[in-house]
Amino acid sequence: MNPTTEARPKKIPEGELPAVAVSASPREKLEEFLATRGLRLTQERSAILDEVFSSHLHFDGDELATRLASRPGAVRVSRATVYRTLRLMVEAGLLRRVARPNGREVYEHDYGYPQHDHFICRVCGELIEFQNGAISEILEEVAAKNSFRVSGHRLEVYGLCSKCSRPQRRHTKLDLL
Amino acid sequence: MNPTTEARPKKIPEGELPAVAVSASPREKLEEFLATRGLRLTQERSAILDEVFSSHLHFDGDELATRLASRPGAVRVSRATVYRTLRLMVEAGLLRRVARPNGREVYEHDYGYPQHDHFICRVCGELIEFQNGAISEILEEVAAKNSFRVSGHRLEVYGLCSKCSRPQRRHTKLDLL
DNA sequence: GTTATTGCAAACCATTTGCAAGTGT
DNA sequence: ACACTTGCAAATGGTTTGCAATAAC
User: Fold this and answer.
1) Is A84 (CB) below 7 Å from strand D?
2) Which of the nucleotides lies closest to B105 (Cα–C1')?
3) Topology of domain B21-111, CATH
4) Which of A45, A142, B81, B112 would staple B22 via disulfide (CB 3.0–4.6 Å)?
């Protein structure tokens, strides 16, 4: 019940990191986060962490659970725990949610990775990342005028990717929104 | 089964409308849309249309269904029909979906209303609209570089509204993402 | 030894859908 | 008459949660 920050190993200089400099590994970051909450780094959480950061791809809870289940010698992790842990990792600043037009919550790395947004193809559903500092700047300006304090944003740009905008377009069951 | 555009009353100059000029009422637009699809403007759809355009507020399917149910002399409209019609109205270009961080799909007018985006307060959940043409321009540029063909976007800017960023902040159960 | 954590299965919950009855043209 | 529509209730489907068993510190 002690509210002071007694357990805070290595004060990491957050905020203005140069878009590439990673001060600590995702694992360290997670450990730090868990410590400050009196939570534990269990085998399950560790396995999830490994799987999540094994590649820089977008994924959803279900996929992740399936991937974990198919790892040969690893700990079994229930779907429930996967979802619970994903929530933790979002709170810890390791992951970020990126909505997709079909109800599934899609995640991506948010730690040690520069801010970016996405193009989302209405046909094939592919996510294409892009970076543009001007957008954040504009948002800050507009926010100031509205006395709004920005802490983050989610920008989804819909349309057709180069593959799907070719002459002979195929029909896919994906035209929501 | 005739694919020609036989029923197209009043060719409306879409696209570059001056942000205020409304060429036809939402009802006309819906009728036109339904006609081209061989669909009907039923009492239920009509009632939903009225309710939807009775105020320029954001709403979700559930809310709308409840509102409709509480209208004294009006037709009863089932929840299922409300959802079905909302989908139609999105396709017709009358409504647009604006995601909210809690799973419910939020709608807003998209016809006769200028393109805009939203600030979303993490504390009170309020949606504040703002307009900024520069953002769309930037997106077009970046998209061109990525051979992506933009058809629309959804930008949600999270943070604190002026009310909630005052010194003594209250605690609310709303801190997702 | 506590207290946090997990797995399971059931619960959630907004939205969708099958189907038989009803309605618009 | 012939689709298109509706309402109802059941189904969906990703995500969450209650609870007893289990593991971490």
Assistant:
1) yes
2) C14
3) Arc Repressor Mutant, subunit A (1.10.10)
4) B112
